[in-house]
Each structure stands twice: as C-alpha cells, then as structure tokens.
Design a protein that fits this description.
468 residues; Growth Hormone, Chain: A; disordered N terminus; globular; 78% helix; mainly alpha
Length: 468
C-alpha cells in the first residue's frame, strides 16, 4: 500500500502516539537483557559473563544500526526502512522465545537491538510531517520515551521472569514488537519527495568494528583487572579504528554520518555533553539497582528480588516523563543549552543524595526519582541543541550520531561502575565495601560537573551570537 508524502488529518492524529509507542517499545525490548542476566545464566547454564552479552550485543547492534538507519531515513525509503527494521525486531523476538540454544538467543537479542536505531527515524518523521511547534514537542518526548523505556522494561521483565521464567519475559517482547510493527504499518507516512540517500558500507563496517571493541572492553571488566596490557592494547586499536572511520567519512561523497556537520561547535558540544552525561546517568542507574539487590548480609543493601528492584525504576520513568512534558514549555523562556546544564545539575543532585543517604529504601526511590527528572529534562532538551543547526532533511542522520554517542556513554557508565565496585571488593569477599559506592557516586558527580560546564559553554556561545 503506497502512502502519500502528506498524511491525511486522520492519519496525523494517529501519528504522534504511534511515534511514541514505537520509540517506547524498541527501548523497552532492548533493555530486557539487563534484568534477565541471572535468569539467562541459570536457564541456559552459562556463566554470568556470557549471559551479560544478551545486553551488550543488543547495545552493539543498536549502536551500529543507528547511523545506518539514520542515513536510510534521510532518503526516500524511510517508511520501508522502518517496517523492515521492525520486522527484524519481531523475528529476533521470536528467536528469544523459541526453545533454541544460547547462541540463537544472542542472535535474537542482536536483532532486537537493531530497533534502537528507529528512535532517530521517529524524530525525522515528526519533523517532516507535523507543524513546527508540535514537532518540537514531539521530538523532545520521543527522546525522553527512548530513555524511560528502560524503566518500563526492567520491572516488567523481572515480574514475568519470576512468574513464568525467562521465556515468558521474552514472550512479552515478541507481543509488543508485533503490535509496534502493525502500528507502524498503519500510521507511518512516506518521506517527502525529492530526497536521496546512499549507504556508506565501508564506513558502517569500520564503525561496527570500533564499537564492537569499545563495548567489549566496557563489558569485560575482568579483562581490565587481570590483563591490563591486553585491555589497553585493544583500547588503542579501538581509538585507531575510530580515527580511520572519521577519515573514511571525510573522504566519502555519501558519508554514513556528516562528520563536517558534527564538527559544528553546537553539535560537537552537545555530543560531548551527551557522552559524559551518559556515563554519569547510567552509572547512577547501575549503582542504585545493584545496591538494592545486594543481600543485607553484606552489611548494607536490601536483598530485593529482580522484580522489586525493578520497581525502583518506576519513579525514574514517571518523573522522567514529567520532565519531558515540562521541557517544551520551559524552553520558550530558557535556551536549550541552559536546560541541559540545569538537568545535569539535577542528575548531580541524585548522585549527592545517593552518596549521603542510602540506608533506607525510600532514599533509593528518591534518588532514582531525581535521576529520572534530570535525565528526562536532559533528553528533551538535547534534540533542540542539535536540530537548531541541522537541515531538516538531515534530522535522522544528525540525531542518530547523538544516539550512538549516548549508547557508548551508557555502556562506559556501566563499566565504570563495575570497575570501581570491583576495586572496592576485598579478597575473599563477594560484595564491595559500602564505601566503594560512595567513591563511584563522587566519580559520577565529577562527570555531571563536566557535563554542566560543557552545556554552559554552549549557552555562552549561543548568547554571544556565534551560532548561526
């Protein structure tokens, strides 16, 4: 069925909730790996390190798919790209449910992770087919929904795993991705006429290799503690590959990502803020959920089950959504870079709260709520900073690069938390000292301070009129 580039009014009414739903589903399904790691290890009789790859491989495929889909989304076949991607996610979801060996579960999780690349395409659709004021608010909410989907996926996955096992949790993923596919098939319009997009295969391959190394190093924490020289060598290789990728993109007539546009001070500053801020945001998320599940026999912690620990993310999702709804209204009075800075300060407040008070479960809920509000505001303001200097036709491509940066930042945030806690675990002990959590929180405060300063520098540049 062929759609016109200009959707009818009835279709426009469905478009905004459809964009939100697709962004929420792909984020929630990709996050299913985190709360199910222990269950996967038990069900498939594999080590926890191997089970961890059910999350890492989804992040990797999402990070690679995001710029590829962003480039395809800038062309005339955006609707087809969305539907084919969702079909891949549905097929991957089916693989996670079927009684197949562990290797097939990883294949399915990789296919599910591809869906993370759709977030930027949802923004491109909103910018092309909605009035300017409404598209700006919708894009901000899509950015927020892509974050709070994590908070939705965690408790649901934990509950279903407790009630029906790991297959039941993945079965829920299959159900919602199938509904998302039908929703997109019904509501997604064609891209505006006159656009072209060519895929830079060489750039995609080099980027995939670099990101594989980055996420491998982020996930394999034991490698850093036991084989530091090997880990450092692989880190150097990853940096070299990223440099090669930049050269390839600069020389390509059809780059995967317009690196020259990324070098614009506003875009570069926003991506730096996203990278460092992403490390801090995911670090706190990791610290709180791990602290809550630590048995009280360790001298701290609450020994919560996966489901109950997942409920701690409810205030994260709720307050994140509230911040996302408020941000479009506030940004009429406050510039987006200042909103980024303010949101980074709020996340820093969450770190300070966690560092100072975590002896009561209510305090963990409070810290998670503060984190959610800060992350929601940060995510809602970020697109405005980048899209202010981005051509409309390049919306998907520009935002896709920002989401690659975010994915890498999240992965490194998780790794940083693991390394600090591992360093704080004494010989013969299963759990780190309580003071290790304080140390990690202080590191997170430093990351958010850098994010705040970067955002303030963007605000000063804008106010001085140096941004076009």
């Amino acid at each position: 069925m062929i759609r016109s580039a200009a959707p009818k009014q009835a279709e426009l009414r469905l478009l905004v909730p459809s964009l939100m739903f697709v962004a929420l589903v792909v984020a929630a399904v990709a996050s299913l790996g985190a709360p199910l790691i222990t269950s996967v290890a038990t069900t498939f009789h594999v080590p926890l390190g191997s089970a961890q790859w059910t999350l890492t491989i989804a992040l990797l495929s999402g990070a690679v798919a995001t710029p590829v889909l962003g480039r395809l989304g800038a062309g005339p076949h955006r609707r087809a790209a969305i539907l084919v991607t969702l079909a891949v996610v549905v097929a991957g979801s089916a693989l996670t449910v079927l009684p197949l060996p562990f290797a097939w579960l990883l294949v399915g999780r990789a296919a599910q992770g591809v869906g993370l690349g759709l977030t930027a395409l949802m923004m491109g659709v909103a910018r092309d087919h909605l009035p300017e004021a409404r598209s700006a608010a919708t894009i901000a909410l899509i950015s927020v929904v892509s974050i709070i989907g994590i908070g939705v996926g965690y408790p649901l996955a934990g509950l279903l795993a407790e009630l029906g096992g790991v297959r039941a949790a993945y079965g829920f993923g299959l159900l919602v991705t199938a509904v998302a596919f039908l929703t997109a098939w019904r509501s997604m319009p064609e891209a505006p006429a006159g656009r072209t997009a060519h895929l830079d295969v060489a750039g995609a391959v080099v980027l995939a290799a670099a990101l594989l190394l980055v996420l491998f190093l982020a996930g394999e924490r034991n490698l850093w503690s036991r084989h530091l020289a090997v880990a450092a060598g692989l880190a150097v290789v990853a940096v070299v590959l990223l440099c090669v990728w930049v050269v390839v993109e600069l020389r390509s007539t059809t780059p995967l990502v317009d690196v020259r546009a990324v070098r614009h001070p506003a875009v570069a500053g926003a991506n730096l803020a996203m990278f460092v801020g992403g490390i801090g945001m995911y670090l706190l998320l990791t610290l709180i959920t791990r602290y809550a599940q630590t048995p009280d026999g360790a001298g701290y912690g609450f020994g919560l089950t996966t489901f109950v620990a997942g409920l701690i993310l409810v205030p994260f999702s709720l307050l994140g959504f509230v911040a996302g709804k408020l941000t479009p209204r506030v940004r009429t009075r406050i510039a987006d870079p200042l909103l980024l800075a303010g949101s980074a300060v709020v996340v820093g407040g969450g770190f300070a709260l966690f560092a100072a008070a975590r002896s009561d479960l209510v305090e963990l809920f409070a810290a998670m709520g503060v984190l959610g509000f800060g992350v929601g505001g940060f995510s809602a303001a970020m697109p405005g900073v980048i899209l202010a200097v981005t051509p409309q036709s390049e919306t998907s491509s520009a935002m896709s690069f920002n989401y690659v940066v975010r994915s890498v930042g999240f992965a490194l945030g998780s790794a940083v938390g693991g390394l600090i806690l591992a360093a704080g675990t004494g010989p013969g002990h299963l759990f780190p000292d309580d003071s290790a959590y304080t140390t990690a929180a202080l590191v997170g405060l430093g990351a958010m301070a850098i994010t705040t300063l970067t955002s303030l520098a963007l605000a000063r540049r804008r106010s001085s009129g140096t941004n076009p």
